[in-house]
Each structure stands twice: as structure tokens, then as C-alpha cells.
Amino acid sequence: MASRTLSKQFARTYATKALKIGLIPGDGIGREVIPAGKQVLEALPSDLGLKFEFTELKAGFELFKQTGTALPDETVEVLQKSCDGALFGAVSSPTTKVEGYSSPIVALRKKLGLYANVRPVKSVEGIGRPVDMVIVRENTEDLYIKEEKLYEKDGQKVAEAIKRITERATTKIGAIALEIALQRQAIRELGGASLHSQPTLTVTHKSNVLSVSDGLFRETVRKLYDSNPAKYSGVQYKEQIVDSMVYRMFREPEIFDVVVAPNLYGDILSDGAAALVGSLGVVPSANVGDNFAIGEPCHGSAPDIEGKGIANPIATIRSTALMLEFMGHPEAASKIYAAVDANLKEDVIKTPDLGGKSSTQEVVADVIRRL
Ligand code: ATP
């Protein structure tokens, strides 16, 4: 595979041992799609030389209701001490504040130092609008530090929230976004189909208004890019104000390759981008740190279809491939991507969210058949 890959950052020596994967189904359809990811890993062709050992781990709102804890210490410890990677399904989000409950995936990102949320959004060749982009969202700061306060002034309520951008976190997210741009190019040069002939990084910001905070984000990524021309000169560098980014992403999504954004803009852009490719049920993501990656489908627990056996497993299957990429196994990942693309392209065995009549298991079986 490409010599210049993210995998190097993560690669350990696995020649003789099985990769240990933590499986955290969580709530709702998470319990139906995580087994799909497991089945696909088990079905990978043996010539790839990969073996897996799985550990089921607990987390979620249901667990919180039963035990008072949404993320047991044991889950975190097993992931930290004995897993090479993990798959996370979904958690239900209570619509009103529930005392003592907070999202286990948000906590996991913090505890495991998973500072990047990586979300590839790709259409299938020949179907709909061409899209082939990756949104790289900073995962640890911005308005999500949740430093909010409410007070009264002149008899009226005032709410304030702190938006924190640090040079340290921005440098890390900029670096991983640039690495992803280089890795995508390396894969393209090996013959991977793509809309792009040259890697491009688009930095999203609102520094025309937030000149200090978003200004720091923009300047920091630019400084990083300029600091190593030998490495990054092949990458085109662009900047885009977030509102016009949204407009252009819907008008001409095909021009975007890698997009890097602070936490809030990244959140909004990545859900918007999912709408470009049909269903939440096909969009994967990975939570990535320096030493660990958790694959996670972008959708939630989908209580409306829970237990019906019709959840689309493709977002999870693609998240499994993304996890493998960050663990240093791009060959295995590309086999999975190709099998999924072939299923989507044929457009026959598909779940109801894509207009089909097939079950989760029928889609899994079809993807496995194509591996
Ligand atoms: P949560 O509270 O967990 O966020 P939600 O229903 O508000 O749940 P999603 O789970 O993301 O949010 O679901 C939004 C819509 O997309 C629902 O109608 C759901 O059925 C559909 N959906 C989400 N994921 C899938 C999937 N994998 N397959 C089919 N439909 C899906």
C-alpha cells in the first residue's frame, strides 16, 4: 500500500496476533448494525492475513436506566488496555435533560483522546450527484467545552457560552487533515476511483466575524501547511467562510476533497453532507486519536425502526473499513469499500431507507458475497 499513509502513525506489529476489537452496540439499532460490522470483519479474505478477536462492551442510555451508569469504567479500561480498535453503534438521546446522564460517546472521545471526527461522504459512481469528500471535525473544543452561564441583566436573562480554540488542538486537527489529504492522493495514485486529481484541503471558518477565535483556527492551519513545503506542496490549500461553504457544498459538492473545521461547523457540515448521498444509513465516521480509532455510523439509535431487522448496515460496514484504515490496514479497508460500492451500484439488495425491501441481514450477506 502507499508508503505515505496514516497507518504508519498507528501501525503496530500484528504479524502473529489477532487484532482485538471492542464492540459497543449501545442502544436501538446499534444492536442490529454492530453485529454486521463483526460479520464483515470475520469474512475478510484470508490472504489479507488478518485475524480478529472481539470483546462485547457495554454503554448507552438503556444501560444508564438499568444501572445508573452510561459508560462503565470497565468499558473504558478494556478499550485502553486490551483493544486495538473499536466499533460503536449508537446511543439514544433523551429529549429532555436526565439528571446524571451524559453521552457515553462524548465521554469516550475525551477519555481516549480521540480529537478528530472523520466523516467521508461519497456517492456511488453513476448514481446521483458526484461527491467524494471527507469532513474532518475537531472534536475536543470550540463551543462544545460547554462553559455556559445564565444571568440577569436589567431584569432580562442573558446566556453566554465560551468558544475556545487553541493552537495546540488546531495544529493536531490540521495535521491529521493534511495527512488524510495525502493518504487519499496516495490511494488514488494506486488506482482508486476518485473525482479529484489533486489533493485539496479546505479550511472552514468565520473569521470575518470571529476574527480572534476562528482567526486563530485559520492562521494555525495555514502556518502548519506553510511550515513543510516538502511534504505539503502537492496539496492545494483553500479557505472558505462557513456560510458560503454550506452554499457551495450543496451547489457543487464535487469540488471538495478534504474539509477541516472547528467542532460546531464540522458538526453542521457533516450532517448536511450526509444529505447529499441519500440516507444517514450509508454514512460512516471514525473518532480518531494518535493511537486509537473507533468506527461509528453517523446515524443515531433510530427507535422508529428498532427491532424490525431493516436497519441499513452500510454506515457501520463502512465505519469498520474506516477503523481498519486508521489501524494501518488500508488493503482490507479498500476491499470492504469496493464490496459496499458494488452492492449500492447494483441497487437491488437494499434496505427500505434506500427504497428497497431487503433486511439488514440480506444486505450483510450481499456485501460479504462481494468481498
Ligand atoms: P437518536 O435519538 O438516537 O438520535 P433519531 O431517530 O433522532 O435517534 P437517527 O437515529 O439518526 O435519529 O434517525 C433519523 C432517521 O433516519 C430515522 O427516521 C431513522 O429511522 C433513519 N435512520 C437512521 N439510521 C438508519 C439506518 N441505519 N437505516 C435505516 N434508517 C435509518
Can you tell me about this structure?
Pathway: Amino-acid biosynthesis; L-lysine biosynthesis via AAA pathway; L-alpha-aminoadipate from 2-oxoglutarate: step 4/5. GO terms for molecular function: homoisocitrate dehydrogenase activity; isocitrate dehydrogenase (NAD+) activity; magnesium ion binding; NAD binding. It is built from 13 helices and twelve strands. It has a ten-stranded mixed sheet with strand order 2-1-3-12-11-4-5-10-8-9, sandwiched between helices. A two-stranded antiparallel ribbon has the order 6-7. It folds into two domains: 1-114 and 289-371, Isopropylmalate Dehydrogenase, CATH 3.40.718.10; 119-276, 3-Layer(aba) Sandwich (Isopropylmalate Dehydrogenase), CATH 3.40.718.10. It starts with 6 loop residues before the first helix and ends with a helix. It is 40% helix and 18% strand. The chain is an alpha/beta fold and 371 residues long. Residues 29, 90, 92-93, 280-281, 299-305, 311-312, 315, 351, 353 line the site of adenosine-5'-triphosphate.
List keywords for this structure.
single chain; 371 residues; Isopropylmalate Dehydrogenase; 13 helices; 12 strands; disordered N terminus; binds adenosine-5'-triphosphate
Strand content: 15-25%
Summed up, the helix count is 13
Residues in helix, %? 25-40%
The average pLDDT value, as a whole number, equals: 92
The CATH architecture of the largest domain would be: 3-Layer(aba) Sandwich
Bound small molecules, which ones? Answer: adenosine-5'-triphosphate
This entry's quaternary arrangement is single chain
The geometry reads as: globular
Topology pattern, helix = H, strand = E: HEHEHHEHEEEEHEHHEHEHEEHHH
Number of strands: 12
**What name is given to the CATH topology of the largest domain?**
Isopropylmalate Dehydrogenase
Which structural category do the helix and sheet elements fall into?
A: alpha/beta
What is the CATH superfamily label of the largest domain? Isopropylmalate Dehydrogenase
Uncertain parts = 1-5, 12-16
